[in-house]
């Protein structure tokens, strides 16, 4: 197989296990650790592995910190083949090589996240994150920014980067520029930790759908309301059906989690959170608060 050097973009302000895992996989590749500025803890790292570079993205002005980091990484990357990834899941030793092989077979490729809760609310919502989030990615050849590979000539890079610096969601925007094949690999991504984080996450996801995929969020809201109404009218039947369906979803995704049993009570929290996410004026992500008035109208509040 031809050897194509790859630029791996990893936004993070601290050196995590993912940094070590990815650095060990580099051959002729490079790993770009994209952080905010000189005061970030990751810059204090000693004994930097070969092939690793630190990129200071600076403070975002009209976009999210993640979008700002990806834009800076794309501009700094040396190679035409690019991988985006995150620091919150395990990257097995053959992860990068496998993604490159997938590109040779399919072109642009993405993997799938399965969100594992780290606080009571996130645990409760796990089954609906699986069915409303992970399953559509898995079945619909959609993009997860935590694991996607493509080449620069696969997109209109100049226009994309200009728009990326005016919005919140990196993968939401990339979906408008790139068609991918979703491969059958699911990664556990641990989310939450506090109730505040557990509330802010669905707000952000809802607003991503609102501005990038309004039909999808309208459909999700309508279907959720109908299922909730059915659950109120026939609770025993709903408990059985929802539980069985969510165990089936987990089987499709290749994940074994007892939390599928929470599908029925999760519904009563999920529906109000969608509404809350639609009407909320600001949300917090990565320590910054954003006001998102339109797809390309973002204010960093603090």
UniProtKB/TrEMBL annotation:
SUPFAM superfamilies the record matches: Nucleotide-diphospho-sugar transferases
GO molecular function, one term: ceramide glucosyltransferase activity
Pfam families noted in UniProt: Glyco_transf_21
Main location: membrane
Record-linked Gene3D superfamilies: Spore Coat Polysaccharide Biosynthesis Protein SpsA, Chain A (3.90.550.10)
Transmembrane spans: 211-238, 258-279
Keywords: Glycosyltransferase, Membrane, Transferase, Transmembrane, Transmembrane helix
CDD domains reported in the protein's UniProt record: Glyco_tranf_GTA_type (cd00761)
Membrane topology qualifier: Multi-pass membrane protein
UniProt subcellular location: Membrane
Cellular component aspect of the GO annotation: membrane
Record-linked InterPro entries: Ceramide_glucosylTrfase, Nucleotide-diphossugar_trans
Pathway linked to the protein: Lipid metabolism; sphingolipid metabolism; Sphingolipid metabolism
Name of the protein in question: Glycosyltransferase
Lineage: Archaea, Methanobacteriati, Methanobacteriota, Stenosarchaea group, Halobacteria
């Amino acid at each position: 197989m031809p050897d194509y050097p790859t630029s791996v973009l990893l936004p993070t302000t601290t050196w995590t296990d993912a940094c070590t895992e990815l650095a060990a996989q580099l051959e002729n590749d490079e790993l770009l650790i994209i952080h905010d500025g000189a005061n970030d803890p990751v810059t204090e790292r000693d004994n930097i592995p070969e092939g690793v570079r630190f990129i200071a993205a600076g403070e975002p002005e009209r976009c999210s910190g993640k979008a700002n980091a990806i834009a800076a990484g794309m501009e700094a990357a040396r190679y035409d083949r690019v991988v985006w990834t995150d620091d919150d899941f395990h990257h097995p030793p053959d992860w990068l090589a496998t993604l490159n092989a997938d590109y040779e077979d399919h072109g642009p490729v993405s993997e799938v996240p399965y969100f594992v809760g780290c606080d009571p609310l996130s645990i409760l919502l796990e089954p609906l994150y699986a069915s409303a989030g992970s399953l559509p990615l898995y079945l619909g050849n959609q993009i997860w920014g935590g694991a996607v590979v493509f080449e620069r000539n696969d997109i209109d890079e100049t226009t994309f980067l200009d728009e990326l610096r005016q919005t919140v969601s990196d993968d939401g925007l990339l979906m408008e520029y790139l068609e991918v094949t979703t491969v059958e690999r699911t990664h556990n991504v641990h989310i939450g930790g506090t109730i505040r984080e557990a509330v802010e996450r669905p707000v952000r996801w809802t607003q991503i759908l609102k501005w990038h995929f309004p039909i999808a969020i309208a459909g999700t809201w309508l279907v959720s309301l109908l299922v909730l109404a059915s659950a109120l009218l026939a609770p025993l039947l709903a408990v059985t059906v929802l539980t069985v369906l969510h165990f089936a979803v987990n089987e499709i995704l290749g994940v074994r989690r007892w939390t599928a049993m929470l599908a029925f009570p999760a519904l009563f929290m999920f529906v109000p959170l969608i509404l809350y996410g639609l009407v909320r004026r600001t949300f917090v992500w990565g320590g910054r608060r954003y006001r998102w008035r339109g797809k390309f109208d973002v204010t960093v509040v603090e």
